[in-house]
Amino acid sequence: MTAVLNLVEHNLHEVRVDDERLLFHVPSSSLFALDALTASMIDSLRVEGRSAAQLRAQLARLFSAEEIEETLAELKTLELINDGGESAPPVLPRIDHFPLSTVVLNVNTGCNLSCAYCYKSDLATPAAGKKMDFSTARAAVEMMIREAPDEKRYHVVFFGGEPLTHRVLIEQVVEYCEARFAELGKEHDFVMTTNGTLLTDEIIDWLDAHDFGLSISIDGPQAIHDRNRLTIGGQGTYETVSKKARRVLSRYSRPVGARVTLTHGTHGVGEVERIWDHLFNELGFAEVGFAPVTSGDIDHFNLSAVEMREVFAGFKRLGEKYLEAALENRNIGFSNLHQMITDLHAGHKKLLPCGAGLKMLAVDHKGELNLCHRFTGSDLPVFGNVKDGIAREALGDFLAARLDREQTGCANCRIRNLCSGGCYHESHARYGDPAHPVYHYCELMRDWVDFGIQTYGRIIARNPAFIDTHISPRRPR
Ligand code: SF4
Ligand code: SF4
Questions:
Q1: Which ligand is nearest to the CA of 446?
Q2: Do residue 59 and residue 120 come from a single domain?
Q3: Which among 72, 157, 346, 380 is placed 20 to 30 Å from 297, CA to CA?
Q4: Contact 269/320 with Cβ under 8 angstroms?
Q5: Whose CA is nearest to atom 2 of ligand 2?
């Protein structure tokens, strides 16, 4: 019997950019411009399955036999066309090696603020917080080196609570790491997200001298920021944070990012742009990243379905601005979109949503290993400790559960290798199972990724210089 060729629809996704047809190759997260022959083949097979001979006969008037054979072979290799044969079931990698290049140190569960939406169930005041001691922090760094001795570069992230409430430990760790990594001939990075309130010129300069990557949590202009980011006594913190942010931005050598949390009460499509405008144009942050809360531990702060639609509409509106600027070779620091463009350009194919549990683990004050900073203090069992190392079997089982998409809605999703089922912490909060995919805003995510593909396609077509200047490699503003 003659084999019938069919399109493998779940491996291809077409996006139109102006008059051009772009093909998003789902398995590799790569983007191609469709040439006339490939487009004709796809169109023909989309109408109905055909044998190779029928396809050749149909296309022979316009294309040479050689071109047709070549394209057909290529589309089969890319698994965009099959001939009805059973495709081999995907071979799932079993992860038993963890290339740990990042440790997140939860230096103090305490925080000097009391933000209304804070998800940290173990949060306390700075004095009552559980503080990490130096021997635990040192053991965490040594565990990372032991678990992944071949890494070239290691990242040490300071997290809390508010990390600057335990500055003495940060200083000890920095001193230790600088000597230790130099001795090993390894590169390193220090990273910190802070609420900004404890920054002084002296601390800013010290962080700068040790080359910290710095982000400040700030939710926008005063009326928005002060809705939730409060002192323990319930006062808004905008005045202090914005003053400190200006100070940092006036003297810090590296670009500083703003981290914005979007929760229930976010008003309308325009709010995303308003927040970005304030943080980027008025305060001068280099990047603004938005974290929409959809499945926090406190239900009341989760964005409603309507609000989520508005947030994504707001992202697209700001995305138009990003594109407009990119065509003039400017980066407006909208990091949600910038990161997606970076991933698309690099052709990143993600089998897992993030590095948590694979390249990164978060260490709590007891030295126990958590998937990421959001799980410290949660009820999810830990995956070993800094002394005995990673509980390989348990962590391997956990990752295997997420890698196996066969019985999930992700199996044929067109953004499966970009979203990869979504954040484990959201899944844990929403479904009580971190391996469960985050299904509640898939359509919005797919639409957002389409927008990213279109934006990327337009930049590539009209101003590829933007990619060279701002994407590969990423450069400061
Ligand atoms: S969680 Fe939803 S959007 Fe993400 S890969 Fe799965 S089905 Fe697709
Ligand atoms: S699990 Fe979620 S919160 Fe944790 S690192 Fe991954 S994406 Fe971020």
A1: 1
A2: no
A3: 157
A4: no
A5: 423
